[in-house]
Amino acid sequence: MATLHAVPETQKGVIFYENNGKLEYKDIPVPKPKANEILINVKYSGVCHTDLHAWHGDWPLATKLPLVGGHEGAGVVVGMGENVKGWKIGDYAGIKWLNGSCMACEYCEKSNESNCPEADLSGYTHDGSFQQYATADYVQAARIPQGTDLAQVAPILCAGITVYKALKSANLNAGEWVAISGAAGGLGSLAVQYAKAMGYRILGIDGGDEKKALFHELGGEIFVDFTKSKNVEQDILVATNGGAHGVINVSVSEAAIESSTRYVRSNGTVVLVGLPANAKCSSDVFNHVVKSISIVGSYVGNRADTREALDFFSRGLVKSPIKIAGLSELPEIYEKMEKGQIVGRYVVDTSK
């Protein structure tokens, strides 16, 4: 294994041994990269709502146990296996949700690697970025330009790529209305910026004056506060003169998802992104048919989406509204996340 420097045998990380078990900040072994893996010295990692689901184990896909979570890790390549090509020691690299896939099935052939039956998921089926050193498949690892602010870029590696792919899935034209449900959260705050950069008019749905202020600061046009509005759907229909052409559902509210099928415009597209546990997307069939609406699921992005999403960031069109905390503070961040108290995105510094 080629290495940049003497990689330690142990490191700090946050690990749990059973779902809903104690989140332990402790010394754990540094993983050894396999033949097809790079070893990344993770400097920063974003904290995603999916990390909470992985800890709870409330999705119909089992996590590996014990597990080190995290899938928005940004750092430096310090080692690599013998079969790795196209990477060198010292490169900046990112850990994404999709760690690897078979690259041989129908889905991988069509660049839908995330749908591969053998997909390996960082911070879920593969130990992720809530540790100082983590491994990543060299094919799927994100290539980050040298000189990039690693704290700022970390949330792009999941949240940014995810919402960028969702906006592409809405099939909108510049000047059309996109409604973003959950517009000031970790995903929504990035969706607003990507939507603006892509030339769409943006209506945001969220709750509270602090979130309203952030939405407008990021370039959003119309804000509907669901905690104050007497009729959210009517407010959206009036504001957009007939409904949003596309809706990006990044909130984790089943009721909000169902509501979006009613305020989307005829011939519009509802995009499902957020994954509330055990939720259903209900759409009245008469409304669905007569308005000719589409409901699509958008699940992260492929390597091209990753490159494109990072390019928006590198050109300064998208920034991460982040709060930096120490990795040791992860349990407190999870608690705030469960209570819906997070504005923007938390990023943890693995050195603390």
From TrEMBL:
Instruction: List the keywords (alphabetical).
Output: Metal-binding, NAD, Oxidoreductase, Zinc
Report the transmembrane regions from the record: none
InterPro entries per the UniProt record, alphabetical: ADH-like_C, ADH-like_N, ADH_Zn_CS, ER, GroES-like_sf, NAD(P)-bd_dom_sf
Which GO molecular function terms does the record list?
Answer: alcohol dehydrogenase (NAD+) activity; zinc ion binding
Q: Which GO terms describe its biological process?
A: amino acid catabolic process to alcohol via Ehrlich pathway
Question: What's its catalytic activity?
Answer: a primary alcohol + NAD(+) = an aldehyde + NADH + H(+)
- EC no. given is 1.1.1.1
Q: Matching SUPFAM superfamilies, A to Z?
A: GroES-like (SSF50129), NAD(P)-binding Rossmann-fold domains (SSF51735)
Q: Which cofactor does it need?
A: Zn(2+)
Question: What's one Pfam family here?
Answer: ADH_N
Q: What class of enzyme is it?
A: oxidoreductase
Which GO cellular component term is one of those annotated? cytosol
Where's the Enoyl reductase (ER) domain? 18-348
Q: Which family does it belong to?
A: Belongs to the zinc-containing alcohol dehydrogenase family.
Tell me the protein's name: alcohol dehydrogenase
Q: What is the lineage of its organism?
A: Eukaryota, Fungi, Dikarya, Ascomycota, Saccharomycotina
